[in-house]
Amino acid sequence: MQKLSIEGGRRLSGVIPISGAKNAALPALAAALLTDETVRLTRIPGVVDIRTMAQLLASIGAEVQAADNAYTIRSGGALIPEAPYDLVKTMRASSLVLGPLAARCGRARVSLPGGCAIGARPIDLHLAGLKKLGATIRHDRGYIEAAAPRGGLVGGHIHFKRVTVTGTEDLLMAATLAKGETVLENSAREPEVVDLARLLAKMGAEIEGAGSGTIRVQGVDRLGGAEHGIVPDRIETGTFLVAGALIGDELRLEGANRAHLQAVLEKMEQAGCEISAPDDSTLVVRGGAELRAVDVTTREHPGFPTDMQAQFMALMTQAAGESNIVETIFENRFMHASELQRMGAHIAARGNRAVIRGKTRLTGADVMASDLRASACLVLAGLAAEGVTRIHRIYHLQRGYERLAEKLAAAGAALELSEE
Ligand code: UD1
Predict the structure, then answer these.
(1) Which CATH number is associated with domain 2-19+232-419?
(2) For 257, which of 8, 81, 276, 366 is 20 to 30 Å away at the CA?
């Protein structure tokens, strides 16, 4: 296992290139299972979750070739429609193959994801949706088996009881090959859903309304190959914005998408952060401003993303006053709070609310990463702290951030990866 050591206090400056979004790349890779033709995806981030998904596609029987940030996938031969426990347990998003496999092969067998550090995270909404498309669902020794009717999935009316991002993506993919019309109501509006819909449209799918709460799909008999570039990672962008606000001279983030970050930009600006946007794909953040506490409640897009909550908490430790952060998407997503406290922050977390009293001096300490975004929060705190912070279990970070340490080092941060 590796740890990341950060010597805090170095000011950051320069240009940071933004990677493609992990959360858009994962469903795009799964979508390649819907056709026997070649799908070529560019701007795929080099992170562990992507390698896990590529492994999963290969175990299903797809040919996967990766060079730099481009992936070429062809699932032309016989497919084994199964996602085994070993892969699903390391990455919950493996359940994204359920819909495509049920649609393409008529059946799918996917290991049930267990609980994870940030809550129970069931997939009941994916399954309820598949049933509406005519599938029968069976539980068998830790696996879910979905079987389409003899002639394949049929269009249906799906109303999601609550908004689910991968659930929307899973059912959207399944619906592209179902007979007739499918309506997805209360669907997720995240930019990653829109990006998937764009890829599917290039493959020949007929989709209307992606990015709104109601998506309509007219099923087609078959989908073809396509080439697609993944959208910029808005959470990576937001993470670097916080880094710049905390300890930047001037950081220029290039290849971003400002429109996807409205809620984050609004809160950061209310907090006094100095951010400008010379054009739609560039954001410039300057540090050194006096920060004010602001309250944040996480919501589905276009609200404040839960995946930026931990990083925002790090920012609020350096803001004057009391900030209330309310987490409404996941239970148990404040594990970074106790680690921040070990670094000197004043935080009272109870249930789904955390109250942060700033501004406090942060000092380096040994801390433990508990999940992907919590790790990012600790990196940010470590950059701003006095002395050395050692973040253990840093593999969480490598699941979702492409070359984070290198990008920060190039901007002037002092950090080092080493074995435990
Ligand atoms: C995706 C993102 C993740 C982000 C999250 C919320 C990917 C690969 N991951 O995760 O980074 O934090 O959206 O923006 O895109 N739920 C159910 N039943 C279900 C599905 C979800 O109860 O069948 C609940 C979850 O437990 C959670 C809420 O719905 O409380 C939202 O989860 P969901 O949007 O599905 O998250 P993911 O798609 O797993």
Answers:
(1) 3.65.10.10
(2) 8
